[in-house]
Amino acid sequence: MIRVLVTDDEPLIRAGVRMILSSADDIEVVAEAVNGREAVELAQTRRVDVVLLDIQMPVMDGLAALAELHRTVPDTRVLILTTFGEQQNVLRAVTGGSMGFLFKDSAPAELIRAVRAAAAGDAYLSPGATRHVVDSLASGRGAQRAEQARRRLEALTSRELEVLALLGEGLSNADAGRRIHMSEATVKSYVSRILTKLGCENRVQAALLARDAGLEPDHTAR
Description:
This is DNA-binding response regulator. One of its GO terms (molecular function) is DNA binding. Residues 3-119 form the Response regulatory domain. Pfam families: GerE (PF00196), Response_reg (PF00072). Keywords: DNA-binding, Phosphoprotein, Transcription, Transcription regulation. The protein is α/β, with parallel strands linked by helices. The chain is 54% helix and 14% strand. It contains eleven helices and six strands. The protein has a six-stranded parallel sheet with strand order 2-1-3-4-5-6, sandwiched between helices. Helix 3 links the parallel strand 3 (50-54) and strand 4. It is globular, with a radius of gyration of 18 Å.
């Protein structure tokens, strides 16, 4: 079982997340916290695999709690819950040790998928969050960086470029597979190979390269 700690100062949000996660046979919500400080204390005293953290909370916010969790219980995976339009927080959490990001209006299936991915050690960013990160970081990039990105992409096959272009749009594996008539598992294999070839740690870094290079889905070879 994947043991989860849900952290949010709004009781309704916690109840909804618990209900969604409890519908999965392999996930158990073992504790709830109302602020970041309580989340850190519970994670330190309970065996927790994944912590879901809201960002805006009293006493200690989610980003401060993330730093504490990363320092004191580094084996515990952390997923950040946020609202639309807080991309600056996405940037801070991506570099602060979070395993991923979800918007609070994400579909229930996406929440379950993200918890499973985090528990397995895989980074997960919702398509919407990925687009915000990419758009924020890509602004103001110069010609030199674009040329460097294009050179790095030369290591990829035409099919890998096609998949990478969809990552640049922020699509999930499932959505990318539907777009190019591939199974989700096959897209996941392609993503793994792409990350290895490009030396990227996660999908966001790969998506940034795609955007830097000007890679567009309609312009990739099939």
